[in-house]
Amino acid sequence: MLLTATFSLVRHAETRIARDAPGEMTFEAAFRREFDERYAPLARYLARLVGEPESAADLAQEAFVRLFQRGSMPDDPAAWLVSVAHNLLRNERQQIARRLRLLQQRGEELAPRESGPAVDVALDLRELRANVRRALDALPERERQMLLLRYEDFSYREIARALAINEASVGTLLARAKTAFRDALGGATRAEVSGA
User: Fold this and answer.
1) Where are the domains of the chain?
2) What is 131-151 written as a DSSP string?
3) Tell me: the pLDDT tens digits for 140-156?
């Protein structure tokens, strides 16, 4: 549904672009350019941050809807979009936490698992993803965001602006975050092997 709304906004922007004089960069043209360049990396970043591609796509689309509703381009659109997406994610996590509390109060249980070779492979993959997710979750929020933004090819400048840190510090902070992630991933794997 949100994807349809986003594409509707883009079509509306394309119609207005066609009416404008050639050579002028209208808001709609700038929006279209940003959408084309930034939607996929933002959605992938959010998917890695939250672990759910569908939810990440909705968050990325909502960030672009908010940009379109704003009606003008911010100084740094990439940083603005990341900031808006972070706020949307924070709100979504609060809603999810409330829902989980309600489910736990009602005592709903998970359905029993099936067994077999295909299920074992799926479980191994799920365990690997869970280890990576635990390692990411063990990091401070800023380090997790830095690693995932860099993984999505955001520049040091864009990372610095999105996270409101000094650009000259990004390289050092990223190196520390990578080390912390490796340590956390090693700890998660060791804990699984020892049965902890």
Assistant:
1) 1-109, 113-190
2) HHHHHHHHS-HHHHHHHHHHH
3) 999 999 998 998 889 99
